UniProtKB/TrEMBL annotation:
Name this protein carries in UniProt: SDR family oxidoreductase
GO molecular-function terms, A-Z: oxidoreductase activity
Family statement: Belongs to the short-chain dehydrogenases/reductases (SDR) family.
Keyword list, A-Z: Oxidoreductase
Organism of this sequence: Novosphingobium aquae
Amino acid sequence: MTDLAGRTFLIAGASAGLGAGFARAVAAAGGKIVLGARRLERVEELALEIGELAMAVPLDVTDENSVIAAFDAADAQLGAVDGVVCNAGVGTGGRSTDVDAAGLRQVLDTNLLGSYLVAREGARRMIAAGSPESGRGRIVMIGSITAEQNGTGDAMYAATKAGVAHLTRQFAREWVRQGINVNCLQPGWIPSEINAEWFASERGQQDIAALHRGRLLDSDALDDMLVYLLSDRSRQVTGATFTIDDGQSL
């Protein structure tokens, strides 16, 4: 029942890291994938790697017209989207007294507004395609354990991820009778382009050593749960937040 064959999923922020890994996991389960990102050349390369189950589209999640165009392209080539993964995100580390307003706006617009716009357009398309009758609509929001932590060095990032977790519950309630399940995955610290430079630094290595198990998450740690939440097996799961962090937040 975790077979995703015959279904189409749009993954926002699919150019690298978690998003690229999610795309490979969904394809391995038989799903068709729309790979969306601002760095079109990256998702085009990934689409070639995955093969006929994947297509690449330009996607700026902060731009409503770009979001709509991505879903239009998906409809035209792969058919109606059955599920969405809201993974696009950025961070701007530093003390709150030092980060400029432009950096704050970029984080807010990408992580929170972008997740809102992608999830909303996905819901519109799924409802129009018959999700109230099929019950097969799926939206997975990607949050972070920073939503429940203090002192991580990126207050706006943490605040937007707390917002993502709450949006999950709001959307789940709003669309509960529309055949759409909305859930949130909150990963712990995991290697990515956002944090690679930090964790390679001396202070970053100290932070890793201070984790309860002294390690970062594996890059594929969320894949099985993601596929589950996109599948029929999760038909009775909505409005939930799942923390997967190897005990980092204990």
